[in-house]
Write a structure and sequence with these properties.
Layout: E1 4-10, H1 16-32, E2 36-42, H2 46-56, E3 60-63, H3 74-82, H4 91-98, H5 100-109, E4 117-121, E5 135-139, E6 149-151, E7 169-174, E8 179-186, E9 189-197, H6 205-209, E10 215-217, H7 224-240, E11 246-254, E12 262-269, H8 279-286, H9 291-300
Parallel strand pairs: 1-2, 1-3
Antiparallel strand pairs: 4-7, 5-6, 5-7, 8-9, 8-11, 9-10, 11-12
C-alpha cells in the first residue's frame, strides 16, 4: 500500500510564495509516483494544523516550508513530538543552518573556509564603525537572500537607513569576488555542482525565482582540482551541521588571480527550493535522477527524533 504523505507548504515567512511553488511541484510529483498526498497550507493557528494532521494521519511529512518557523527547527520540533517522520534535516541542524552566525562559527571550528565577518547591532553602528568596503549585509535568520545587500564604494548602506527591518543583529561579511558555485548534497554525498551567472549584483531573490534572470551551468565549469575540492567541502559542511536528506551548499569562488581559486562557504540550505527555477532538481537531473525520483527518495528516507 502506498504511503500517505502530507506536504506542508506556504507558511507566513518572507518566503511564503517560494514555499507554495515548491510544495505544489513536490505534491504533484509524489502523486505521479503513486503516493497518497494531502497538501496543508500552514498558518499560525497551531490547533488547526494539529487537527488537519490528525485527520490526514500521514505516514510521512514532506516539509516544503521555507524560511522562519518552517526551516529553522520550529516545525521540526513539533513533528518530533508527534513522532511523524519528515523530510530534510532535524530540528537542531535546521536551527543551526538558519542562524548564519551559529553556522559560521561551526564552519570555522571545522576548518571550513568562510569570509571574514562581523556580528554587529544596528543601533550601535555609526559611520565610523563601518567595516571596509565592499561588504555584504545579511540578516542573521532569513533565507532566499531576503534582506541581503552588497555595499560598494559610493553605495548607501542599509545599516544607516530605515529600510533595515530584520532585527538588531546584523551579519556583515567581506565581499568575496569571483563566481557563484553551489553544490547539492544527497544523503551526505555531493551530487553535483552548478555555477550561476546573472546580470544582477548577485544571486538574489529575483535572480533565484524569476525565469530567465539567471543562467545555470551544470556542472560548474571550473578547474577539476577546484571542483573536487568544493564537492568535499560541501559534504563536510552538510555533516558538520548534522544535516539529513538533501541540502544545498552555497559558495563564492574567487578565481580572480587564476585557477584553481579559493572558496568561501556562505551557507547550507537545509530545505532547498524545488521550484521550476531551483538548482537542486537541475543538478539531480544532470546526475540521472528525475524530479519524481528525487522527491520519492526524500520521502523514503524521512525520519524524526521521536
Amino acid at each position: 500500500m502506498s504511503k500517505n504523505v502530507v506536504v506542508l507548504l506556504g507558511g507566513w515567512s518572507s518566503e511564503r510564495e517560494v514555499s507554495l511553488s515548491t510544495g505544489k511541484g513536490c505534491a504533484e510529483a509524489l502523486e505521479r509516483r503513486g503516493y497518497r498526498v494531502t497538501a496543508i497550507d500552514v498558518s499560525r493557528n497551531l490547533s488547526a494544523l494539529l487537527a488537519e494532521l490528525n485527520t490526514a494521519r500521514p505516514d510521512v511529512i514532506f516539509n516544503a516550508l521555507h524560511g522562519r518557523f518552517g526551516e529553522d527547527g520550529c516545525v521540526q520540533g513539533l513533528l518530533d513530538m508527534l513522532a511523524i517522520p519528515y523530510t530534510h534535516s532535524g530540528r537542531l541542524a535546521s536551527a543551526l543552518a538558519m542562524n548564519k552566525v551559529a553556522a559560521r562559527r561551526l564552519f570555522a571550528d571545522e576548518g571550513l573556509p568562510v569570509a571574514e565577518g562581523w556580528l554587529l547591532r544596528q543601533h550601535e553602528i555609526g559611520p565610523d564603525d563601518e567595516p571596509p568596503r565592499p561588504y555584504v549585509v545579511k540578516p542573521v535568520g532569513e533565507g532566499s537572500s531576503v534582506g541581503v545587500t552588497l555595499v560598494f564604494e559610493g553605495d548607501q548602506s542599509p545599516l544607516f537607513g530605515a529600510e533595515w527591518t530584520f532585527g538588531e543583529e546584523v551579519l556583515i561579511e567581506a565581499f568575496v569576488p569571483g563566481r557563484e558555485i553551489q553544490v547539492a548534497v544527497m544523503g551526505g554525498k555531493s551530487l553535483g555542482t552548478v555555477e550561476i551567472k546573472t546580470d544582477r549584483q548577485f544571486y538574489d531573490y529575483v535572480a533565484k525565482y524569476t525565469p530567465g534572470a539567471s543562467e545555470h551551468l551544470v556542472p560548474a565549469p571550473i578547474d577539476p582540482e577546484a571542483h573536487a575540492d568544493v564537492m568535499r567541502l560541501a559534504e563536510r559542511a552538510h555533516i558538520c551541521l548534522g544535516c539529513q536528506g538533501v541540502s544545498r551548499v552555497d559558495f563564492r569562488y574567487d578565481d580572480t588571480a587564476g585557477e584553481p581559486g579559493r572558496f568561501a562557504l556562505l551557507e547550507v540550505n537545509t530545505q532547498p527550493g524545488m521550484t521550476p527555477t531551483s538548482l537542486v532538481p537541475e543538478i539531480a537531473e544532470k546526475a540521472g535522477i528525475s524530479f519524481e525520483e528525487l522527491v520519492s527518495w526524500m520521502v523514503e528516507n524521512a525520519s524524526c527524533d521521536s
